[in-house]
Amino acid sequence: MGYVAGLIAAIAFAVIAILTAWLLYQLIRTTGIINQFLDDVRIETIPLMTRFQTTMDHVNNELDRVDGILTAVESMSQKANSATKVVQEVVTSPIVKAISMSAGAGRAYSKWKKK
After folding, report:
1. Taking the complete model, does pTM exceed 0.85, yes or no?
2. What are phi and psi of 6, to 5 degrees?
3. Looking at residue 52, what DSSP letter applies?
4. Using CA atoms, how far apart are residues 31 and 23, in angstroms rounded to an integer?
């Protein structure tokens, strides 16, 4: 009877050893597939990152140009605003004086006519 129990234990140990070996094989195979996938990702990622860096450098250069253009436009806008204020003051002041004088002359004429 002890032999039967020993035989059953030996068979169970053999089955467990075979299952463990099969699981290790599957784990090694899966690890190999994951390593191959990671290598492929690395091979594809490095050129993409290089292109991305080149694109970002180009975008930064373009943004510098746009910044220069906006600075120039802002300067021209300020100059145009200053010129407009000067013209407005030059034109408005004589017109207001002329209107005031004509209004005063009109009142004086009205008073002179009534006399």
Report:
1. no
2. -65, -40
3. H
4. 12
